[in-house]
Amino acid sequence: MHRLTHAEIMRIRRTQGATVLLFITDRCPVGCAHCSVDSRPDSPRITDFALFEEIVDRLCADPVSSMIGISGGEPFIERRGLTYAARRIAEAGKDLVVYTSGVWGAAADPPQWIHEVLDRCRCVYLSTDAYHEAGTGPDRFVGAARAISGHGLPVVVQVVDEGGALARAEELLRAAFGPAWQAHAELVPTKGLPHGRGAALFVRDRRVAGRQLGRCKLADSPVVRYDGRVTACCNETVLMGGGPAALRRNCADGAEVDTAIKEFGRHPLFRALTTAGGGPLTTHPRFGDLADRRYTDICGLCWAMARRAGSNEDDALLRAIGLLGEGRRG
Q: What's the pLDDT score for residue 130?
């Protein structure tokens, strides 16, 4: 069975239509101060399982996508939903990638249902840093890492790169696997996201003119929440109901979810953001005044453009800019 590395997963995520992220729950017992989706122990979780199963079945039936990620919140608190999704994704022949804090890890062997989920994965992302460790403790991280690796899976350890976080993560991996830890895991430094509770911790002061912003690598990586909300990208604020409505659809059944994903994939603005980039799009007359406005990142420019573009899919100039960008990218 082929196991996926972080580099392979990022390559797949940047391929149009190849992946979708299933946001399986808002709930998480860890309570990290930097949580970008403001997950809490009492946050909402799956209540309409008929809708959830219909959503999963629709995602599995998509002939284009090859990889489905599952995140939250903490996916492993949703035993019923996670076991169903993992089984169906594996049966559909798609690659399953799960993102977890490892809160379920402990000195004792995890329950059998967790092993069954891990056995269906191609890779597991395990997060640790000072924020996670305060809620999970080192023993749970070590136990989760060992359990994941015990299934022959790559353990991708995501770490908010601040202070001594990377050194501490390596220390924990040595505790889990010994000096040859790199045979079992890889460390991936990340930046704290200014969303959710993270907005109070991670302030981005540097601003760049719209004309200088490049491509958005994830504008065509849709996220589907357990309750039928679909977003064009993985921006957490959008998923939680903020930002422009054009980036979000609230769907009542699996068919509407399928339609929303396809509409986002065809949307000329989102396609052009991934191919040409934000800067070239400011040459469009509709967005010309945004060229000299300054933004902290591509999301700010995207939001300004999305509010103007709406759901319009008939803008020939937008499509032309996107096609030119596709040619340069290829």
A: 57
Written as six digits, the tokens of 290 are 């945004």
Give the DSSP letter string of 204-241: ----EEGGG----TTTT--EEETTSEEESS--HHHHTT
DSSP state of 29: S
Residue 97 pairs in a beta bridge with 69, 123
DSSP 281-312: HTTSGGGGGGSSSEESSHHHHHHHHHHHHTT-
Helix (H) or strand (E) segment spanning residue 143: helix 138-149
103-128, pLDDT tens digit by residue?
A: 999 867 899 999 999 999 999 999 87
- Are the C-beta atoms of 23 and 71 separated by less than 8 Å? yes
Q: What is the DSSP string of 47-65?
A: --HHHHHHHHHHHHH-SS-
Residue pair 195/187 in contact by the 8 Å Cβ criterion = no
Secondary structure (DSSP) of 78-96? -HHHHHHHHHHHHHTT-EE
